[in-house]
Amino acid sequence: MDPCPFVRIVIGSLALKFPTETKLQSSTANLDCKIKLKGFSAQATSIPAFFQEQEAILDGKIHACFNFSKSELLKFIEKSNGKPSCLNIEIYGGSKVGTFGYFKGGGKKLLGSVLVPLDLKGLENVGHRGVVIQNGRVSVGGGGSTAELNLNVRAEPDPRFVFQFDGEPECSPQVFQVNGNVKQPVFTCKFSFRNSADRNLRSRSSLSEPSTSTSCFSSCTTDKETSVKERKGWSITVHDLSGSPVAAASMVTPFVPSQGSDRVSKSNPGSWLILRPGDNTWKPWGRLEAWRARNNELGYRFEIIPDGATDAITLVNSTISTKKGGKIGIDIINGATPLTSPNSSFDLGSGSGSGSDFGSQPGSGSWAQLLYRGFVMSATVGGEGKCSKPEVEVGVQHVSCAEDAAAFVALAAAMDLSMDACRSFSQKLRKELRQQDQE
Question: Where are the domains of the chain?
């Protein structure tokens, strides 16, 4: 079945040009930038500042992205009542870069903003080469500013495969590929406990349920005294329609409460291995860690594991609301650095941007650039106590076979199950998640 059409609005090459008379403390000063589009979470980045007589070094860096499925784009157009939407780029500065003449005093304050009209109706059928919406320099409004912002805004096609669970992962659901109103079954999931009597799961490729292997990572722990309060041994195996296992998620580090608490802490997270079949055995593809963060949030970190390597490469590290749920998203905007999570808050004082120069991180980071660029995947995660049927999107460029898609489906299942694994130990889990010795 064909992938679903998506459109990606890309904002890049941002740099602010000041007139000669502007006094900066440093010619290499960076400013903070907040990029907003109605209906989306604001995205944060930093941009360089340069003088009129200088030339900006424009390296094609991407600063922000906004994604639309075809249905979302149509709804967005309908809500706008024919009026063009506007991309709002706000620029902030403060004591770190001196006074620009637009304000006085320390702290981060608004220097000015730029509005970029978006004719979303004209983006319904973006060709494979994309559309340039605006490119060049525009005046920055606000405070009598004579500064100019260099920017490049374009729309690109970004087709994705969409998968939907027809039930909660612990209920061993089917997984459908979705395209508009058409749904086609592609996978089945089997949830089980590795240390239970159910060890008879077999397939035509003779792979069994993934076992606990302490040799994969030094952080993996073995079973301790049965009296220890812990959630352990969960496993979910993804099969294709022929019954062959094509991916799995195996809980390799139990989820245990921190000392004197009933919650899983960041200092001692639980973890999963995401596994793929190879040479008639399971091979680790990625590792997911999860814990209970502050402010009723679920913290998580996903790392990819290069084949045959011992060091993992972090692709995403963020949080999700335990009350409302959210999305795990992997979006590599410059081939090196993940895009700021849509669930992350904008912090002018953090100085953390959503992008980095392509190829700026040598070593193992450059390995990730070769395999993962642009939108990689996203998956919905339900809040605590809510019925959760994950929906998974995977970029077409990252799927060349069923095992590729299944690995992301297994990751989505592990992420959703982590919401339950990190629940307060004073709360009882649903029966599907409790072993017989916990009844």
Answer: 7-94+108-159, 166-195+230-334+368-433
Residue of higher predicted confidence among 221 and 155: 155
pLDDT of residue 295: 84
CA distance 130 to 171: 42
Say whether domain 7-94+108-159 belongs to CATH 3.40.50: no
d(CA 131, CA 129) in angstroms, rounded, equals 7
3-class secondary structure, 414: helix
Return the structure tokens found at 332: 């590599």
User: Which regions of 198-306 does DSSP assign to beta strands (E)?
Assistant: 234-240, 245-253, 270-278, 281-293, 297-304
Per residue in 48-80, is it b (16+ CB within 10 Å) or e — as a string?
bbbeeeeebeeeebbbbbbbbbeeebeebbeee
Each residue's pLDDT tens digit, 311-333 = 788 999 999 999 999 999 998 87
Residue for token digits 């029966």? 431
Q: Are strands 148-157 and 160-165 parallel, antiparallel or unpaired?
A: unpaired
CB count in 10 Å sphere of residue 19: 14
CA torsion sign, 251 to 391 to 36 to 19?
Answer: positive
